[in-house]
Design brief:
This protein has helices spanning 14-28, 40-50, 71-77, 82-91, 104-115, 151-169, 190-201, 228-255, 257-265, 267-277, 303-318, 321-340; strands at 2-7, 32-38, 56-60, 97-100, 125-127, 129-131, 137-141, 175-179, 206-211, 223-225, 285-288, 293-296. The chain has 341 residues and is α/β, with parallel strands linked by helices. It folds into two domains: 1-121 and 289-319, Isopropylmalate Dehydrogenase (3-Layer(aba) Sandwich); 122-287, Isopropylmalate Dehydrogenase (3-Layer(aba) Sandwich), CATH 3.40.718.10. The protein has a seven-stranded mixed beta sheet with strand order 3-2-1-4-12-11-5, with helices on both faces. It has a five-stranded mixed beta sheet with strand order 6-7-10-8-9, with helices on both faces. The protein is globular and about 60 Å long. It starts with a strand and ends with a helix. The mean pLDDT is 90.
């Protein structure tokens, strides 16, 4: 059995979304167990309401972390919070992975300070998934965990992200691109130019060159490597544009009667496009490089979104992804040392 902890507090939609997501995930996988952390009575009331009984337990953790709480204070002084209770259980080996929709800053601090990094990993990194125009997906690594990066760190992101795309999504040879201001090899600052050469010469990586931000959803790439500042701006710009376009289409349809009539004939298509463009349907951001599987879901996650996050955690653990990452990072370090010798 694979055991995943779900932090029930922290998200915008509260316990109904997390418990509802747990129910959907339990129904999808026969060898999945879920532990729910949060206020015991509130969680059990919701479980009873939706009929969630089998393979699901509750751990009482009444304290709630807000996005305004200082991350280091959360780690040191909030042991009864739903997130820290999940982190401590994970650290103690009482579960295989965890899912939370709570504070990103608190999660990064707790994952780094309490769970720890895999051997050889410089820094853990976030890797969210974005849909592409050819019906596939692209990973963005990093998207906010590391605002400042070195070329070595970016190369590790490429190694870890490639393994993630292979193991969880079945991409045989992920096409890796470096986010830059132009596609030419000589473009960018010193960080991008140095990283380009390292990626170009790294064995085992299918590096295809630089990528401009406008091509993120083109379908020409499977993984985009970038520092956390640039990646966060890239991902949020794409997500925000998609949601605003949906609102614009809805507004334009309701503005004229002929548009409303035409929309009736295209209702199915509009629904499909809405599902495609809604980032909440693609799970959350995985943290690659920690000793345990950790998924950070969107704060606005619905039950379906939480279920997708649990599925990500399940598939990562089922594929033993951390062992693969440790081996690949070790091989990369050896290759780099040989090149420098």
């Amino acid at each position: 059995m694979i055991k995943i902890i779900v932090d029930c507090f922290g998200g915008d939609k509260g316990v109904p979304a997390t418990v509802g997501g747990a129910k959907l995930a339990i129904e999808s996988f026969d060898d999945l167990e879920i532990v729910l952390t949060g206020d015991e009575q509130t969680i059990k009331d919701e479980m009873k309401r939706i009929g969630l009984k089998d393979r699901c337990t509750v751990v009482h953790a009444p304290d709630v972390i807000s996005c305004n709480d200082k991350p280091t204070d959360v780690v040191r002084h909030r042991p009864e919070s739903s997130m820290m209770k999940a982190i401590d259980m994970l650290r103690a080996g009482e579960a295989d992975g965890m899912v939370t929709t709570g504070s990103t800053g608190a999660l990064v601090a707790a994952a780094t300070m309490r769970v720890g990094r895999l051997k050889g990993v410089s820094r853990p990194t976030f890797c969210p998934i974005i849909p592409t125009m050819n019906g596939r997906i692209v990973g963005v690594c990093d998207s906010g965990a590391n605002v400042e990066c070195t070329p070595k760190r970016l190369c590790q992101f490429a190694v870890m992200g490639s393994i993630y795309m292979k193991s969880v999504f079945g991409v045989k040879s992920p096409r890796v691109a470096l986010l830059n201001v132009g596609v030419e090899e000589e473009k960018g600052d010193l960080l991008r130019k140095t990283t380009y050469q390292l990626l170009k010469n790294a064995e085992g990586l299918n590096f295809v060159g630089n990528m401009e931000s406008r091509d993120l959803m083109s379908g020409n790439y499977d993984l985009v490597v970038c520092d956390g500042f640039s990646g966060n701006v890239l991902v949020k710009s794409a997500e925000g544009t998609a949601l605003l376009m949906l609102k614009k289409i809805k507004k334009d349809i309701s503005s004229r009667m002929r548009n409303k009539v035409g929309a009736l004939f295209m209702k199915k298509m509009f629904k499909e496009e809405k599902e495609f463009m809604d980032y909440r349907n693609y799970g959350g951001s995985v943290i690659l490089g920690t000793k345990k599987v950790i998924i950070k879901g969107h704060g606005s996650s619905t039950a379906v979104s939480v279920a997708k996050c649990i599925e990500q955690a399940y598939r990562m653990e089922a594929s033993d992804i951390n062992s693969q990452i440790e081996a690949a990072v070790a091989a990369y370090v050896e290759e780099k040392e040989r090149a420098e010798a």
